[in-house]
Amino acid sequence: MSRIFSIFVAFLASFLLIGPAQAEVTVLTSIKPLQLIAAAVQDGVAIPEVLLPPGASPHNYALRPSDVRKVQSVDLLYWIGPNMEGFLPRVLNGRTLPSIAVQDLPGLNLRHFAEDNQSHAEEADEHDHDHRPGSLDAHLWLSPVNARVIAAKMAEDLSAADPANATRYQSNLKAFDERLDALDLRLKARLAGIAGKPYFVFHEAFDYFEDAYGLKHTGVFSVAAEVQPGAQHVAAMRTRLQEVGKTCVFSEPPLRPRLAETLVAGLPVKLAELDALGGYTPATAQGYEQVLEKLGNDLAGCLESL
User: Fold this and answer.
1) For 166, which of 98, 108, 159, 195 could close a Cys bridge (C-beta 3.0–4.6 Å)?
2) b/e string for 184-207 if b means 16 or more Cβ within 10 A?
């Protein structure tokens, strides 16, 4: 009996010396790509949450009361910025904990929509101010260079908020950088054969990825996924498709624009998808690389099949 009592006293003493465990740092991101970058940094420590469900548009998402409560309560919140999630600033005004708009981070490689893109400038002015010529292109996560900057900021913030796991966060950041180096080599090899091949997109969302790998879309049917292009623009793009011949036209999931089939009817054109958000990608350490690799494979796969 005395031996059991001694073991109990020793256990109790060790528990009191250790003290209460530090509460887990909660991380919330606005969109899936930021969640995937955070998941790489937090690997083995925690799984970050994401605000937008798969298929939801970051341009016009309607927050639920539960979303608002989540935004107000998490320890660290990461979003792209007002050029992407226009619904968030009003809610963030009442938040007292850190909120990081990653578009403002130093060291990012930022792009702006072309000033001379007159083919749909009028539509952008009327329907979609976020894609107006000269405005910031907020699809910045599609640049691996920018992903590194975002991951470094997350690792810095998490290390400060959770010093007990600081070494793990920094180790995860180093591993993420090394995986991006390997991914970059794979994508350059995969996409080298399609450089210069013409293709069209329904949403001007891929310029960062294209810039990183020497690609350029031939035309855009609509500057934003939520905006239907005008009749004059559609007629001009169909004429352009006829001039180009065999090509691919890419939309984004989950919905294909209603006019897609009509636009390519009778032409040697393939309809395919490019997923910039990776909405259904599991939040694992390798998730971000999976989104970019799938993007490259889907783009190359369609063009190689012509």
Assistant:
1) 159
2) beebeebbeebeebbbbbbbbbbb
